[in-house]
């Protein structure tokens, strides 16, 4: 089973137009963050999401623009040092940023804690930051203001900063019971960031653990920020599936990853979106995907 196709808005030039294209083409999720598009992404998305109420939206908390940092400082939430770092997971900031998100965006089905591995030099610091952020987000979820929350990470699972069982334990602590609202994880899945993919093929790793525990799984950066397609040879593209573009072949490989629910792409034109959807309509099976990863490993 292939992953559903969602829109990721990181580094998208025209967020509103990309969202209109994706929603009209049947995207199931739109993924964004308060700091995307220099802090303008939420405002751009609100009218589109209001027209497409069947599309779910995931956003984040943690990173901030300098303008947002100054507003948080004026509200007595952040210090100059925290503003300079560009990232905070203190409970007060998470509450403040999530409140602004809901005002700007309208609603949020998932609020991801954004790259919590940045929150400290060791695991204990990271776990403490996660516990505090989860506590703040539990308050919003308990009141029905957000659908749930999750963790999105670039390197947290690979670096050993946390595991899926540890995230669930922290969520239980934050909620004070097993009735927590941790609902999703997001991590990069691509032919470059291939470890989650190869682990999933073996029935192991964070994607498999998350899916087995009822969490939604999102794969980000399937084209590695646009850097991957130029590196893929025509021979490898044809090996993945003849007739596809390099970008579609890379997306197909990522979207065929076992235990992956949603793969996020930043394609923004109707032609590219149709091409991506067509590629994912017929996923690679486990044997085919393993052959692709084996070829890459040999190279």
Structure description:
The protein is α/β, with parallel strands linked by helices and 299 residues long. The chain has helices at 15-24, 41-51, 66-74, 80-85, 91-105, 123-142, 156-159, 164-175, 195-201, 205-212, 234-240, 246-255, 270-280, 286-298; strands spanning 4-8, 29-31, 56-61, 110-114, 149-152, 182-188, 216-220, 262-265. An 8-stranded parallel beta barrel has the order 1-2-3-4-5-6-7-8, surrounded by 7 helices. Helix 1 (15-24) links the parallel strand 1 and strand 2 (29-31). The mean pLDDT is 95.
Structural category: alpha/beta
Oligomer: single chain
How do the strands of the widest beta sheet line up side by side? 1-2-3-4-5-6-7-8
Average pLDDT level: 95
H and E order: EHEHEHHHEHEHHEHHEHHEHH
State the shape.
globular
**What Rg is obtained from the alpha carbons, in whole angstroms?**
19 Å
**Low-confidence parts:** none
Strand count, sense and barrel status of the largest sheet are: 8 strands, parallel, barrel
Enumerate how many helices there are, as a single number. 14
Total strand segments: 8
């Amino acid at each position: 089973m292939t992953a559903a196709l969602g829109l990721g808005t990181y580094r998208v030039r025209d967020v509103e137009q990309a969202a209109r294209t994706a929603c009209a083409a049947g995207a199931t999720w739109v993924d964004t963050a308060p700091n995307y598009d220099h802090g303008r992404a939420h405002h751009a998305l609100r009218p589109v999401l209001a027209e497409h109420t069947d599309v779910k939206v995931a956003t984040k908390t943690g990173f901030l623009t300098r303008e947002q940092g100054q507003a948080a400082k004026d509200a007595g939430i952040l210090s100059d040092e925290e503003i300079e770092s560009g990232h905070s997971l203190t409970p007060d900031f998470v509450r403040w940023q999530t409140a602004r998100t809901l005002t700007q965006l309208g609603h949020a089905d998932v609020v991801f804690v954004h790259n919590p591995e940045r929150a400290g030099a060791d695991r204990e610091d990271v776990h403490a930051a996660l516990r505090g952020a989860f506590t703040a987000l539990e308050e919003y979820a308990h009141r029905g203001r957000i659908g749930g929350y999750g963790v999105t990470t670039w390197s947290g699972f690979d670096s050993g900063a946390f595991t899926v069982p540890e995230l669930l334990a922290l969520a239980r602590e934050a909620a004070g019971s097993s009735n927590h609202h941790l609902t999703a994880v997001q991590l990069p899945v691509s032919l470059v960031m291939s470890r989650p993919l190869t682990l999933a093929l073996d029935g192991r790793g964070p994607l498999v653990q998350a899916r087995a525990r009822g969490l939604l799984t999102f794969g980000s950066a399937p084209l590695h920020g646009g850097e991957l397609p130029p590196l893929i040879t025509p021979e490898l593209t044809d090996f993945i599936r003849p007739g596809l573009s390099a970008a579609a072949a890379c997306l197909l490989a990522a979207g065929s990853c076992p235990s992956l629910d949603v793969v996020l792409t930043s394609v923004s034109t109707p032609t590219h979106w149709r091409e991506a959807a067509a590629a994912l309509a017929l996923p690679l099976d486990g044997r085919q995907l393993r052959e692709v990863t084996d070829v890459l490993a040999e190279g």
